[in-house]
Amino acid sequence: MAILKVAPLGNPILRNGAGEIAPDQISSAAVRALIRDMIETMKEYDGVGLAAVQVHEAKQLAVLEVADNPRYPEKGRVPLAVLINPKITPLSEEMEDDWEGCLSIADLRGKVPRYKTIQVQALDQNGKELDFIASGFHARVIQHEWDHLQGKVFLDRMRDLSTLTHLKEYGRYWVNR
Fold first, then answer.
1. What is the full DSSP assignment across 85-149?
2. Catalytic position from the list 57, 65, 100, 145
3. Tens digits of per-residue pLDDT, 126-167?
């Protein structure tokens, strides 16, 4: 296993989107190694999600987990999940603004509107079909990673850039607002 290099904002891979992974390739040694390395990289940097494009792989693959994360201590647990070729569908027009950060946009946070509840369809690391409903922070993390696979970052979704702040200032001025 290896800690992978995270592409910072400005690297073209973050804006190019990603191609689907053929179902017969999911069990390949290369894809399995990528999944293991992505999980290790996400945990190393205290991320709650990581898209393959963020580690220089233009593949429709994301990993996520929220478990006692120091960057999001107030958020509920989300079990480890591997999403391959994900599709998301909002289940209502109801949205919620909340703070987001990104491993590719180090030390910045901003308020981003996201759908509160989504339906997720994807393949897991074994090629098994997943079809589930996610809400709250779980839905937010999935939408954030899905955006990466479409060539978008959270800054593209912000309605109001006045909340864009450095992490240190977020802790000083915004966290208890």
1. EEEEEESSS-EEEEEEEETTEEEEEEEEEEESEEEEEEE-TTS-EEEEEEEHHHHHHHHHHHHHH
2. 145
3. 999 999 999 999 999 999 999 999 999 999 999 999 999 998
